[in-house]
Amino acid sequence: AKESGRNRFQFFTPEMQHRLDARVTLEQGLMRALQRDEFVLHYQPQVNIRTGKVIGMEALLRWESPELGLVPPMEFIPVAEESNLIIAIGNWVMEKVCATMREWLNTGVPVVPVAINVAASQFSVQDLEKQVRDVLERYRIHPHLIELELTESLSMDNPEGTIELMYRLKDIGVAMSIDDFGTGYSNLSYLKRFPVDKLKIDKSFTSGLTRDPEDRSIVTAVIRLAHSLGLRAIAEGVETAGQLELLAREGCDELQGYFFSKPLPEAKAIQFLRDGVSM
Ligand code: C2E
Ligand code: CA
Ligand code: CA
Ligand code: CA
């Protein structure tokens, strides 16, 4: 504040320069990561609340950097989104999931559908439909084995285009869900028109479920909303038996969270599927 007079027109502070440098370094790191094949997918089981059976797995991205160690997605996805690298990374994820499933099918692993996170900017790319068709065909993966998790934020700038693309993806036969439901820009009039199968309750609501009456009200409302629109509800971030009990009482259909399993590296995911673990 003392130097504000002198610095008034100095928009580019050393602090900003530092942050920019860090971002450029991270971007370059991500580009190299793609070239050097440093990304890996972990898989987190999703469970049917009534049968206790594993009904799906969510593919979650990690970066195994030789310099930085295991980098969690929250540290690089936002940068990837801003720099458009998310398109190449998103394609890698799609490719990797299908290649992995083909391998599992070939080796007799009892596969379940795999959910893939799709960033908003990926969704606005016109050839997403072609991409999905192409990769499913190349690996001969049945579309029912793939689910796309879309965030609410994608409905914002071009809702008509979004809905159209959703219908074209629906035509392919892949399932779709709205991720982090309730945390973004909830436009319920669009929700009605989205050809999705599931609403995914964000873990911020699940975690407050047993102590915060407001979180509980929200969760109950989302489950009712899902059912009244003919959709299923899945809760993420389920960590305790107490949360599970409440979710069961409120009629939630599916669960995902540390209570059942953390996201698992591929070998462990295979083991989990082979053992047919249930709750
Ligand atoms: P998300 O899609 O909401 O995924 C759920 C996150 O919650 C994951 O974090 C998961 O590991 C974590 N989680 C699961 N169960 C529990 C639990 O019981 N307790 C707690 N505290 N956390 C739990 P992760 O793997 O670090 O991913 C963070 C976010 O990064 C994801 O949030 C998603 O938005 C993004 N992301 C991950 N993989 C991809 C990807 O392949 N593509 C894109 N575009 N985004 C991805
Ligand atoms: Ca997700
Ligand atoms: Ca998300
Ligand atoms: Ca979430």
Automatic annotation (TrEMBL):
EAL domain: residues covered: 23-277
Transmembrane segments: none
Protein name per its UniProtKB record: EAL domain-containing protein
Organism, as annotated: Massilia eburnea
Lineage: Bacteria, Pseudomonadati, Pseudomonadota, Betaproteobacteria, Burkholderiales
